[in-house]
Design goal:
The complex is a heterodimer of chains A (202) and B (255). Chain A has 202 residues and is mostly helical. Helices cover 79% and strands 0% of the residues of chain A. The chains are: A mainly alpha (202), B alpha+beta (255).
Amino acid sequence: MADNREFFYRRLHSLLGVIPVGLFMTQHLVVNHFATKGEEAFNQAAGFMGSLPFVLVLETLIIFLPLLFHAIYGLYIAFTAKNNPGRFGYFRNWMFVLQRWSGVITLIFIAWHVWETRVQAALGAEVNFQMMENILDNPFMLVFYIAGVLAAIFHFANGLWSFCVSWGIAVSPRSQRIVTYATLIVFFALSYVGLSAILAFV
Amino acid sequence: MSEQKTVRFVITRQNAADSTPYEEEFELPYRPNMNVISALMEIRRNPVNRKGEKTTPINWDMNCLEEVCGACSMNINGKPRQSCTALVDQLEQPIRLAPMNTFPVVRDLQVDRSRMFDSLKRVKAWVPIDGTYDLGPGPRMPERKRQWAYELSKCMTCGVCLEACPNVNSKSNFIGPQPLSQVRLFNAHPTGAMNRDERLETIMGDGGLANCGNSQNCVQSCPKGIPLTTSIAALNREATFQSFRNFFGSDHAVD
C-alpha cells in the first residue's frame, strides 16, 4: 500500500459501511418484510427491485464495489487485532470483539446468500417467494439465515456507533453512551423486521 | 504460636530478550502494608524460590515509587498497572507477575518502553519556543482550560494503555492511545496550537489515529484516569476537518 493511505482507507471503510452498504441492508430488510403480507406482495416488491432501470449499474456502484472493499479491508482490520476480552471484560471491549466476529460471520453469510440468490438469478433462476421458501425449508439453512441476518444487523448497529466516534460526531462519554442506546434500538428494530420476514417463509 | 502468614508469587521470567519465558514461584513471609515492589526487593535480598533452590534475583524497572514515573508497570494478576501501588493486601494470591509483553522484554519484568518516547518525538509533543531572539510572552491560557489540560498532562508514559489495547500488537503499527492524547494536550496549549496542523498530519499518517478500534480498554486501564477515548474522539473530529482542509484547501491552516 502506498504511504499514508491508511487514514483514507480506514475512513472510507467506515463511511462505506453506513453509506451505502448499511442503507442498502436496511432497504433490503424492509423490502423482505413484504413476505409477511403474503406471496404475491413479496413477489411484486422483489420484482420491482429486480427490474429497476440501470439495475446492474446500481448494484455495482451501491452494493458490489462498496461491499467488496468493506469486506476485504474489514478482514484485514479484524485479523490485525489481538482480541483480549478475557483479560479486559469491559462492555466496549466485548463490542469490539463481537464487531469483528459478526463481520466475519456476515461475510460468510453474504457470500453464500449472493451465490444462492443473485448468482442463480444471473444464471436464469427466478428470485421469488418460492425460492426462499425452498431454501428455508431446510432447518440448517433456517438457522444459518437467522444467524447471518442477526450478525449483519448487529454489525451495522454497532458499526453506526463506531462511525459516530470515528468521524468525531460523538465525542464526550455521555454522547457516546446515548449513541450506544440509540444503536441498541436500531439493532432491535431491524432484528424485528429481518426475523419476521424470515419466519414468514417458514 | 500460629504458623507465619506467607505471600505467594508466580513470576514470569525471561533471562534475555530472545530467550524463552518460564514461570518461577516464590513464597515470602508476610509483612503488613507490603506492595509488589517491596516483595520483589525481599526476593532480591534472598533469591530463593518456593522449592528452596537458590535462583537469580528478579529484574524489574522502578524509579519514583509513588505512581508518577510509570517505570514499574507490569501485568499483576493479568492487569497492567504500577507495581509500586499494587498492595499485597488487595491482591488475590498467588500473585501473578508478568512483563507487559506488548513491549520488547529486556529481562524478567523489565521492558523497553522506548517506542512511546519515539512516538512523542514523532508527534512533536512539546511547545516549540526556541529561536534566535526572545519571542516574548505567549498568549494567555484561560484558567479553566488549564485545569482541564492538567488532567491530560498527568500521562507518565507508563504503557498500560498500550498493553490493554487490542490494536497495539506485533501485527499492527498503531502508535496507541498515549501519544494521541498528548497531541490533544499540546494542540490545546495556546502556543502549542500554532503547530496544530503538523501534529494532526502526523497522527493522520500510517499507524496513527485511524487505527483505533474503540475497544476503550485504554480509558478503563489508565492509572491516571486520563480521558483517552474522549481525546481520541475529539481528535477524530479534528482530523475530519483537517482532511477536508487538506482536500479542498483552506485559509484556516492553524486557526
